[in-house]
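User: Hey, quick favor. My workstation is busy. Could you predict this chain's structure for me?
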Amino acid sequence: MKFLGNLLAAILGTLIALGIIFVMFFVFIALLGSGEDTVSVKSNSVLEIQLQRPIADYTGSSEMNPFSGLFEESQGLDDILQAITVAKGDERIKGISINNNFLLAGLAQTQTLRKALDDFKESGKFIYAYGDFYSQKDYYLASVADSVFLNPVGVMDFRGLSSEVLYFKDLQEKTGVKMEVIRHGKYKSAVEPFLENEMSEANRKQIGELLQSLWNSMIDDISMARDISPHDLNIIADTLGGRMPKYAKQNRLIDEVLFYDEYESVIARALSEEEKEDINYISLDDYTRFSTKKELKVGNDKIAVIFAQGEIFYGEGGPDVIGQGIINEALIKAREDEKVKAIVLRVNSPGGSALTSDIIWREVELAKEVKPVVVSMGNVAASGGYYIAAGADKIFAEPTTITGSIGVFGTIPNIEGLAKDIGINAEQVGTNKNSVEYSLFEPMGEAFRNQVQESIEDTYETFLTRVSNGRNISMAQADSIAQGRVWSGVDAKRLGLVDELGTLEDAIAEAARMAEIESYGIRKYPKYKSGFERFIEDISGAGAKMKENIIKEEIGEETYHILKDIKSYMNQKGIQARMPFILNID
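Assistant: No problem, here it is.
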């Protein structure tokens, strides 16, 4: 055993040493490149857009940071949009090639990217798209191109949107591990997966209407780009009319069926190049390093753009988690900065802690007393995400934003059944009537349930009040569109939950109008450490990532995400203002 221990220690020491050498190599390369702009953009170039990494609204690292971009798992939507905008006016860039994406972005982010590419086309430059495989989101983005091409043995998925919700009632009964659920009385769909084995008709109806609204937004855009009526697009989806390349071409979803070398010949002709080998490609990552140094908006006056993305938890927060610490610090900085004339809060969150949501809401209220506050909603701004947005002077959402879900609930794990099965008995001793609040090992007492229910009702009432005051509607009106119901951006505008449909840029333009300024610069908050710096700061994180990858490999990606979802439920503390179920749209 001692020999094995020494052997493992030696192996671990070697791996750590190699890791340090690897890290120092990257530090050296980064420092070499930090002194000057190493990106070379040749004349007659094509910007190649391959989006293979997850897209976040904002990565938060400064372009002045020499380690920016290293060890980053995600791409910033703001950086991608800036690259496309800069490319539009860059005479060296003659066109864009959207090439073999596997788009890891939400629908609203995809729609925003699509709008930016549509704007790029106004320059008269070409956009071509090629795919070996088109998922529905990939095709939605690619359909903006002047011409769309598909591999002769490629695949296209065009069938309409769907969503799957998992139900855990039987699992709880079989394992003896259950979630005690306490919710607002009328909040029917909240935490339904823990209470039922089947989807309720009310929940089926609301998800169906949400999906239909999102799908309508998608096919309206595709219809305009491809000159195919929405009616015909729905027939194509119903008949799987894009399932083979030849059918996709017959139904005008694509322009040609080509191998990639043939596609490159098309690009060469567009560039007036004799050979495809003469094409000057520049990758999006490389061009982004160039474009982020360009200031598109300048002026002494500033508009602060504060990005709130991820689930809402009590605490400091970070790149993927909204905490009151980091968000309120940004709001206070922007409020107190005399150069900042307006604030845009970009929200991309399914919600979370009701307490944290209210703390952030209060800071938005204080900022609003000093200068205009406009909210821009991303993929999702639901429940707690809507809570922190409700008080803004004006709210913008994308047509495909998922929002609403105004409701609260509490989930508390209980393992009484499991404990009984494996022979555990818990006994409690206390000094007062209510000193033993709750035990995982005992059935939930009526007194404790009533206490939590009272808190749930009070929090729901507070949430409704925030919505009522923020949207200038009665409590009854707020209640009628609440009850945990989720809405698309289109429906949210119709109901008065948002003011306008538009992008982050539209929200910024409105903030400038409200502040009565014409020329202005942008200040983005908060600033995060780069992925490289986070890696150095927490080497153990690399080990955790390795373990995560091993687990994924062993049990499969889908099972891993189910386990993560269950763990997320188990970790929820306090009253929750979040999406009532996990909605994965395909």
